[in-house]
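Hi all, a correction to my earlier message: I attached the wrong file for Nucleolar protein 2. Here's the right sequence:
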Amino acid sequence: MGRRAKNKQAPPESLDPKPEWTSKKRLGKRKAEADDIDEKPSPRPSKKVRDLNGKGKETTKMDRSSSKKEGKKQPKVVEDGWEDVEEGGDLKTHAKSLFDDDEDDELEGDLDALAFDEVDDDLLQGPPQEFDFDSDDDDVPPPVSLKSKKSKQAERPRKIIPTLSDASSSVEDEDEDDEPVTMDNMAQRSRKLEAQAAAEAEIDLEEAQADAQLAEDEEDDVDMDADEDNNGDMDVEPFHLPTASEIEQEKATGGPDIQLVQRRMRECVRVLAKFNRRAEKGRSRSEYVDQIVADIASYYGYNEFLAEKLFLLFPVHEAIEFFESNEAPRPVTIRTNTLKTRRRDLAQGLVNRGVNLEPIGKWTNVGLQVFESNVPIGATPEYLAGHYMLQAASSFLPVIALAPQPNERVLDMASAPGGKTTHMAALMQNTGVIFANDANKTRTKSLTANVHRLGCKNVVVCSYDGREFPKVMGGFDRVLLDAPCSGTGVISKDPSVKVNKSDRDFTLLSHLQKQLILCAIDSVNPESKTGGYMVYSTCSVTVEENEAVVDYALKKRPNVKLMDTGLEFGVEGFTKYRGKTFNPSVKLTRRFYPHVHNMDGFFVAKFKVEKRSKALAVAREKEAVEEPVLVDEEFMTDVIPTIPAFKGFDAEEDRPYLEEAKRKRMKAKGLRPPPRSKAAPPSANVVEAEA
Ligand SMILES: C[S@@+](CC[C@H](N)C(=O)[O-])C[C@H]1O[C@@H](n2cnc3c(N)ncnc32)[C@H](O)[C@@H]1O
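and the right structure:
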């Protein structure tokens, strides 16, 4: 679809009130059918996802408000406490004062000069090349106007596992959402939302307690499980996994019925939660896992390989939440370009055009979340004047973690189309120098366009393979490697990821990422007076693109260590994953998930680079050795039992242990061990007695 078409406001969709799940639809084509919108209005409120501003805002907000705000409202501009803050300042302090009532009168620049009374959408869209809608994951403007998101939301499949939080999808919020956000009511609404957040926290606590109670009740409820349906009714047919021939038959008849798949997923979740009690006799855990993965793949339209890879990242119940969240769009967010304006002024200008927006949250002093707009948000005069960048909230994170300082020398190793480069330029107040590199020359065009549009004067654009650094240049105070990745964190934006990634892609990507991360580290000046940092990020959630890459870097470069990212939220990185153990410090990395943080899936790791020295290498090696090593029980026989007051080896005493160890080793190699000698085999009791 061309850009023009993408930006055009979609005509209102008619929503047939026929319940979505009454139709006997077959799976597979569900996402592709245009008439789905008519057929499947969501029968209940969309899932509420906790917003990062801590206000408990819901993604459904856009839906509700969009229908209410048809007229071109021109809210009057008032002094409402949109106190803007210096980029790079103390975020926490500024966050506190974000909605204070003292107004900063000093206006920089005059937006009126740009103000258009009537905005002609088509005119504003202009020729395609004027806008950077390049395919970068982070900085893609909404493909259609905000209003059309409404129909996309309505398309969302019903949740498989309803949670308590769904029930609390607040009715109370609706009154508030009826009202457009204006400069008048913004501070007041913010306070209200914060109160709601507190209430939500309480609800969460109650939910957790209720869950705990439920778990306890389930313990006592042994016999009921077998015949209960999801509503607790006793007379439904007990669930059984389909046999191979039943599956064959399903395939022959065009795939399973959607309701059947839903029920099967629900039941598999239930069984896997308490396998020993609920599984059918003779069925293994892996059979249930295989079934639920196959059903997830067909229900949500993934290839089975990726469905399994993503499924395994989470506890079963949470995995469904993750897949669900990929079906809903993330909030549309913009980043104020503080080189040209202040957030308050930008918000004022956009509100005047009928844009419904709010600050994203306290963790950023430049982000705005757009709920609804009468004008295409990627083509307002403010956009064209470079006052903001359309940018996913998640893509602010690596820049915040890197925290580039004025007058530094910075490398953005994979930078197109420049969302993060231009953010860094703003934090550096257009001082110092940023080398914005991208291997893809074509993509550097949109990077250059953004650099110009946003008025960044400290950026040098270049196009090398990142693996050529630091040979081409090095000695940077800070380096950002926002690595090329599979995009498993941005599936809601690019659903093609669901089917176009194979095992080989992940292997190749992980390999490239490992090469790039070493080059990024080596490009840092360890003697930098102000920095010496490297941030690695991806918009993917897979372990091989994230923790495994970071762990590899730690192993290969003893002169680096992981640091706290400084980000206020996010889930700790994995230190163990499916039999792999990573350096314990990998838990300092941060993961971000759509179903938890209501932003794209993302990963951020921050490294401090020190001077290479032999002593450091030895120290790191020692640290690594001193870490507890998990040994498979199979090999435990090689370990000499710890005996208090150990007085040295006694060959005769140790013989049974050594013999036993030898027997096990031989068995492991498939050899037949010799019969045991007459000496008693070692046992814990013997050791204790001897001790
Ligand atoms: C996730 S995108 C970067 C997004 C960018 N940081 C931003 O915020 O706008 C990854 C980029 O890596 C580039 N890339 C791929 N392989 C590369 C390589 N070997 N060296 C440098 N850049 C590469 C791609 O062209 C792509 O633009």
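Sorry for the mix-up. DSSP finds 27 helices and 15 strands in the chain.
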